[in-house]
């Protein structure tokens, strides 16, 4: 006799029943759909929740990592068995800026592989029709031709500061494609460029470029410091997308797109790090001088995405970098009081609102 609980039985294989046939067709997400946003408190996940609410979707499932550790396969399968989501958006991941990726590569590889495999296996086991997997532009080769087209994937060596994270993300894209092939489920993957917005990680050392700079420049302004020191040479280029634009793009893809190849999401415009620093200085109102710490890594020299696929599908971003950065500075000032400046020691999760 099979003494295992149903969730445990499902855990041992990806799919229990015969291949499901997809019933999906393009159109708005059903307002009564149960949508699970894995990572709903994060930068991307919280923007996805806002975008879903703007569409009138109310049955949004979210669990913090304390409530549901997605590295724990059994818990993930139990969650799916009890909640049976109709749509899954996988925005939970171990995420960090260049220093975090460079310092803890095996954590970024191992944790992300486990999170992805568990969530995607559980979604397949329950026959979830619509799944969107979020990767990142770091999946592409370090010296890919610019702007980077989707077909540049796996054509060259990765940027060493984030190769472990990138390999985990490439595995996620492959799992989506393999699930489509094996089970006929219309799952998709999206690859956003560097993101910024409210609910970002402003911890400093582990942050991405933009939140790190907003924190640094705001602190320098408050303290009337004569100069700030940014990382690297200032010459690499980055394409920055407001996370609310990213969320709209993801929902647009979920409503309109069904194809195995990952889709780039970006603005199609990039700036040097020095130019981005100047935009932050203006938004914050800091007029001191800038030094560059070249002992810190530059990372990939350029990773401008070719966004013609999503443009041709009919989606374009709406938030300019200057406006977006100014809004995030306001958000940061409202969310973080000066006495909370020690929050890097507390951990980014604890300062989210
Ligand atoms: N930030 C960026 O610039 C970019 C991000 N992306 C992609 O977007 C996705 C989300 O990134 P972003 O929003 O920036 O990251 P954040 O760090 O802001 O959020 C990550 C979320 O994942 C959750 N999480 C992490 N580990 C676990 C776990 N073990 N179990 C359950 N939940 C977990 C966290 O939950 P909790 O808060 O409860 O701890 C958090 O809400 C990632 O896939 C990333 O690759 C893509 C391109 C650029
Ligand atoms: C989204 C993407 O994010 C990461 O890749 P990245 O784009 O290299 O990351 P970043 O945002 O941290 O840095 C961008 C650039 O900015 C320069 N820089 C200046 N001053 C600061 C600074 O204060 N902090 C940081 N972090 N960078 C700084 C820094 O020297 C570098 O040249 C990966 O995690 C990757 O896995 C990934 O997916």
TrEMBL record:
CDD domains according to UniProt: GDP_FS_SDR_e
Family to which the UniProt record says this protein belongs: Belongs to the NAD(P)-dependent epimerase/dehydratase family. Fucose synthase subfamily.
Region (Disordered): 1-24
GO molecular function: GDP-L-fucose synthase activity; isomerase activity; NADP+ binding
HAMAP family: GDP_fucose_synth
Binding site for NADP(+): 39-45, 134-137, 169, 192-195, 208
InterPro entries listed in its UniProt record: Epimerase_deHydtase, GDP_fucose/colitose_synth, NAD(P)-bd_dom_sf
Binding site for substrate: 216, 231, 238, 298
Site entry: Important for catalytic activity: 136, 138
Domain NAD-dependent epimerase/dehydratase: 35-266
Matches recorded under Pfam families: Epimerase
Enzyme Commission code(s) on record: 1.1.1.271
Catalysed reactions, as listed in the record: GDP-beta-L-fucose + NADP(+) = GDP-4-dehydro-alpha-D-rhamnose + NADPH + H(+)
Functional description taken from the UniProt entry: Catalyzes the two-step NADP-dependent conversion of GDP-4-dehydro-6-deoxy-D-mannose to GDP-fucose, involving an epimerase and a reductase reaction.
Top EC class of this enzyme: oxidoreductase
Protein name, entry field: GDP-L-fucose synthase
Gene Ontology annotations of biological process type: 'de novo' GDP-L-fucose biosynthetic process
Keywords, alphabetical: Isomerase, Multifunctional enzyme, NADP, Oxidoreductase
Active site (catalytic residues): 165 (proton donor/acceptor)
Annotated pathway: Nucleotide-sugar biosynthesis; GDP-L-fucose biosynthesis via de novo pathway; GDP-L-fucose from GDP-alpha-D-mannose: step 2/2
Organism: Gordonia lacunae
